[in-house]
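>> received
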Amino acid sequence: MNISLGKSFLKTLGVDLGLTDALVTSDGKKRSPLKVLQKSLKKLKRRQKALSGKIKGSANRTKGKKIVGALHEKVRNQRLDAIHKITKALGNDNQVIIRENIYTS
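>> returned
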């Protein structure tokens, strides 16, 4: 017994990646950039600025480089986690997802 599903049973969703909002879907939902990520980026900016003033080869510069490297890793992990959570939620709710590509010159 073969049962075929028509196109009316597939739930589709259009996705637009934007600048002000991280993600806008065709049903009107918006995902803004994460506040936690913005906080980490601000902290990274401050630490990099402090590192640039340290004397090359000094122990304090070595410590600063370790701190900056750890912050880079933290930001990377936060971005990957956010992407995973968003794509998982979209994939669970919809069968077809369409992404918009806009090329500007």
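>> The CA atoms of residues 18 and 97 lie 16 Å apart.
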